[in-house]
Amino acid sequence: MMPNKLTLATLPTPLFRHEKLDALCGAEVWVKRDDLSAGGAAGNKIRKLEYLAADALERRATTLITCGGQQSNHARATAIVAAELGLKAVLLLRTADPASPPPRVGNLMLDYLVGAEVRFITPAQYRERDALMAAAAAELAARGERPYVIPEGGSNGLGSLGYVDAMAEVRAQLDAGLAGGPRGFDAVVHACGSGGTSAGTALGARRYAIAPVTHAIAVCDDRAYFEGVVARIIDETVALAPELDREARPIIHDSFKGPAYGLASPEQVAFIVEVARRTGLLFDPVYTGKALFALSRLEPKPQRVLFLHTGGLPGLLAQSETFAAS
Ligand SMILES: *Cc1c(COP(=O)(O)O)cnc(C)c1O
């Protein structure tokens, strides 16, 4: 039996095409607007949280614990969903030096606004994030809370079911005559940061005949790392939904990361600016901007593409310096 989920997102999200975006990318690009999946909690993480928060409530949790970078979209979505459900949120956020905390802008501003408890940790501590979250859970439990730990990015088998469902949603849109009707796409393209979107999309794209290949554009780490992570999440997902094909895999690209996680190259920044000015579509320099840039450079280029716009607007707003000269 499939796990239960809550209704948190506003679905289905639109499928959007803009002829100038086609020209900029050199393909027919259908944008799946998951950046419009909610209000403040918008983006890809809310689809995962529909399953994860349902599990937390079934276990009568009082506090959600999760982790991420200081501008984590996932941590922000978790904090907002916690507030909506009357739960507390504890966020372990990676920052260079916890003694001088980062400015409260973008995602971090929203974390504080909804009352999340933010605990900054160093990059070295972040490598032990699962142990640190387990320790935080033990500490809260000792105080009488009922903690529920959500892994980085909400990326486990349960969370990734949200993207299997997203592909079912696209199938229903195609069958209703949208985006050219029932024949699917040549490829799906999306940003990859913790692997859950990639696992669910690869499984769902195969299950619902959305496209023969899915391209996961890594924004950190490398291909070997993500092949391992995504394979593990796929196994977990198939354990929950045995009708899925456990051989499904994304094609992972690790040459579009730019200078570092969270930092876009000057060429990528210029591309994001160009797209914004010509289409009014906003892509962020951490995830979606790098993925769209990758699509514009992919060789060989798929002709008809489903591009997952996974959100990230607060992260864009936190990078005013990056765009100051534009
Ligand atoms: C988290 C995130 C991604 C990557 O999704 P994962 O499931 O973590 O790989 C892509 N885009 C945005 C805007 C995100 O916040």
Explain what the structure shows.
The protein is of the alpha/beta class and 326 residues long. The protein folds into 2 domains: 15-43 and 155-323, Rossmann fold (3-Layer(aba) Sandwich), CATH 3.40.50.1100; 45-153, Rossmann fold, CATH 3.40.50.1100. Helices cover 42% and strands 16% of the residues. The chain is built from 12 helices and 10 strands. It has helices at residues 19-25, 45-58, 73-85, 106-113, 123-126, 129-142, 157-175, 196-207, 223-240, 266-279, 288-297, 313-317; strands spanning 15-16, 28-33, 63-69, 88-94, 117-121, 147-149, 187-192, 213-218, 251-253, 304-309. The strands form 2 sheets. It has a 6-stranded mixed beta sheet, with helices on both faces. Strands 5-4-3-6 form a 4-stranded parallel beta sheet, sandwiched between helices. α2 (45-58) packs across α3, α2 crosses α7 and α7 packs across α9 (223-240). It is globular, with a radius of gyration of 19 Å. The termini are far apart. 50% of the residues are buried. It binds pyridoxal-5'-phosphate. Residues 43-44, 73-74, 153, 155, 191-198, 287-288, 310-312 line the site of pyridoxal-5'-phosphate.
